[in-house]
Amino acid sequence: MSTSEPTTRRSLLGKIWVGLGGLALLEGVWIVTDFLKPRKRQGSDKEAETLIVAGPIENFDPGSVTAFQQGRFYLARLEDGGFLALYRECTHLGCTVPWIGTEERFVCPCHASVFNIKGQVLSPPAPRPLDTFAVRIENGIVKVDTSRTLKRSSFSDSQVARS
Amino acid sequence: MARDTTSDPLGNILSRIYRSIVPRSIIPKTDADRRRTILEFLVLHMRPVRVRRSTLRFTHTFGLGGMSLVLIGLLMASGILLMLAYDPSPEHAYQSILSIQDGMIFGATVRAVHHWSANILVAAALFHLLRVFFTGAYHGPRRFNWVIGLGLLIGILAANFTGYLLPWDQLSFWAVTICTGMLGYVPVIGEWLQAFARGGTEIGRGTLVLFYSFHTTVVPVVLIVLMAFHFWRVRKARGVVSPNPQDSQEDDDTEKVLTLPHLLVRELAVGLTLVAVVVLLAALFDAPLGAPANPGMSPNPAKAPWYFMGFQELQIHLEPLIAVVVLPVLGALGLVLLPYLHFDHEMSGPWFLSKTGRTTGALAAVVSLVVTPLLILIDEFWLQQVGGAGWLAVGAVAAGITAFAVFLSKKFKPEKAEFVQSLFILFMVAFAILTITGVWFRGPGMALVWPWIGGS
User: Fold this and answer.
1) What is the DSSP string of B205-260?
2) Closest approach of chain A CAs to the CA of B254, in angstroms?
3) Which of A17, A137, B321, B371 is 20 to 30 A distant from B332 in Cα terms?
4) A contact test, residue of B298, B313, B321 with most A CBs within 10 A
5) Which chain B residues have a beta carbon less than 8 Å from that of A110?
6) At B253, is the pLDDT very low, low, confident or very high (cuts 50, 70, 90)?
7) Cβ atoms within 10 A of the Cβ of A64, count?
8) Is B166 inside any structural domain?
9) pTM for this predicted structure
10) A37 — contact with chain B (CB < 8 Å)?
């Protein structure tokens, strides 16, 4: 390049202009992406709003499932007394799965995925068990941290909170 | 004209103002005047002065491009009215739709015009694409215009989809949940993409603001710019493709007639008929509105809008990665690259290109019409009982398609354009059947049902 066309002041300035233009373009892209980025809800990451106090342990019978509308989850108490907070969105496409008490399972109305009380997939197309929220048991009170969902590829006993 | 300012000063200044805007008669009397009228009016000069007589026949183009333009006009007019009364917030959106329908004069009709125009527009644009494809109007100077047309189709789908959420009823809320849920299956960036499209992790205020602003600003502006580009390119290609293959290259002036009146009266007739049909539809059938959106309860079944239903149906049968990423990307790539394939003969003009084109095309349509429903039934009642359609089943379908392609080229020795057309028809019919199955033959729990027995 420089052998055929020696760098003159004019061509150097030209390149600088192109470079600056490119920089301005990048800045524009950056601004647009930043504006498009999902906004954090004001103050919603405060613990007071995302930490749901479900109640004392004895309120929940083993083998029962309780819906928490505000926290968007089901609190499941397994037969052995352990707790799981299951996020209510189907892992397939995000429909809300209702708990069918008589059949003791979650059945997604959208594509008929079926989950058991532990959130394990009994019938596809759901690709993985229901997501969970972290459960803490402090002084016999069950608390659920709904600030972020925990994805899991399979059920393991470490996901269950016990007193 | 007359310099008689004293007798009628006001009339004179009005006429001068009028003449400055409209320099010549809108309804010219002589051919020479007609030529000049075409050239001197902003809207009319998008047209050439003269067009080929053979391209005027309605069945050559069905006026689908012009129909799309008219529908976009109707959409903008009714859309601006709706914007004035609509409130893009989760708390008030549904209520504002109700008050448009019940409280405003012709409110329900305006909303219905918007609804029907939008849905007919998707269909008109798709049929327009088919018309261009089946008359081979994507060669030579029309190559890049095919790509612009695909851009317009994406814009139209984006406009429809972003508008779908705005009523904030159960129908729209869950359709958008499902469609953005599909994005989550894109490898690596899926989760990020989904959060981006939803304006957060869940459908909510962020999603509504994002969809509303795109629906009312970005998408319409992009559509207008692309349309201007699209029409200009048609003009540069000397109008629409000629139905006679032999005169596709040379420019025979003896075959031509004046655009005004021959083309314009036809366009006007198609446009006005379409407006009448849309208004009539809107007067007879209201736009649907379900119960207010309830994030805690998915309706059963929950379905995507009809133009995305083919993908949702495909998802029932195939791995999500294949159904919502691999196949759509391959399809889109195929469509974009179509005009840039190397064709020995760039066949264009008659519908379905040639006699061989019609035979192979019909064969592909029949095969797809028989095989696709069979595959759906086999998967539904056999494969899914024994653990779903695995790679073996996908491989079998791919092998079947390959066998069909080999059979076609051995038996008919088609030109490349005819061969490509035949395969295109195979996939197009399959997708159409998937869409129809999803829209009409899927009931609660997405089980197969007969549409006339208590389906959705």
Assistant:
1) HHHHHHHHHIIIIIHHHHHHHHHHHHHHHHHHTTSSPPSSGGGGSS--GGGEEEHH
2) 50
3) B371
4) B298
5) 174, 178, 298, 300-302, 446
6) low
7) 16
8) yes
9) 0.88
10) yes
CATH of the domain at B211: 1.20.810.10
Nearest CA in chain A to B446: A111
> CB within 8 A of B250, min separation 6: which ones?
none
A-B Cβ pairs (cutoff 8 Å, strict):
72
Per-residue pLDDT of chain A (163 residues; tens, 9 = 90+): 445 677 788 889 999 999 999 999 999 999 988 888 776 654 455 556 778 787 887 888 887 888 887 778 888 888 888 888 889 888 888 888 888 878 888 888 877 788 888 888 887 778 888 888 888 888 888 888 888 888 888 888 788 877 7
Q: Does A93 touch chain B (CB under 8 A)?
A: yes
Return d(Cα B447, Cα A108) in angstroms, integer: 12
Angle at A113 between CA A68 and CA A95, to 5 degrees: 50
Question: Looking at CA atoms only, how far is residue B56 from chain A in angstroms?
Answer: 45
Please judge whether A36 and B196 are an interchain contact, meaning their C-beta atoms are less than 8 angstroms apart.
Answer: yes
Lowest mean pLDDT segment, chosen from A27-41, B376-390, B394-408: B376-390
CB atoms within 10 A of CB A100: 12
* Best residue in A42, A45, A93 for a mutation probing chain B (most B CBs within 10 Å): A93
Closest CA in chain A for residue B302? A110
Whole-number Å distance between alpha carbons of A15 and A20:
9
Whether B71 and B117 have beta carbons less than 8 Å apart is answered as yes
Q: Is B182 on the interface with A (CB under 8 A)?
A: yes
CATH topology of domain A47-159: Rieske Iron-sulfur Protein (2.102.10)
CB pair distance less than 8 Å for B181 and A127: no
B390 shares contact with chain A (CB less than 8 Å): no
A21/B contact by beta carbon, under 8 A: no
Distances (CA, A) of B407 to A66, A92, B49, B96: 60, 39, 48, 58
- Cβ contact (<8 Å) for A95 and B301? no
Q: Is residue B318 part of a domain?
A: no
Contact A134, A85 (CB under 8 A): yes
Cβ within 8 Å, pair A94-B178: yes
Q: Is A100 on the interface with B (CB under 8 A)?
A: no
Does B248 have pLDDT greater than 70? no
- The answer to whether B305 faces chain A, any CB pair under 8 Å, is no
With an 8 Å Cβ cutoff, are A38 and B199 in contact? yes
Average pLDDT, chain B: 88
- Tally the domains of chain B: 1
Residue range(s) defining the domain that contains residue B67 = 56-250+257-303
| Sole residue written with tokens 């233009």 | A21
As a whole number, mean pLDDT of residues B107-131 equals 96
Q: Is residue B274 part of a domain?
A: yes
DSSP A80: T
Residue B21 falls inside a structural domain: no
Counting beta carbons within 10 angstroms of the beta carbon of residue B57, is it exposed (0 to 12), middle (13 to 18) or buried (19 or more)?
Answer: exposed
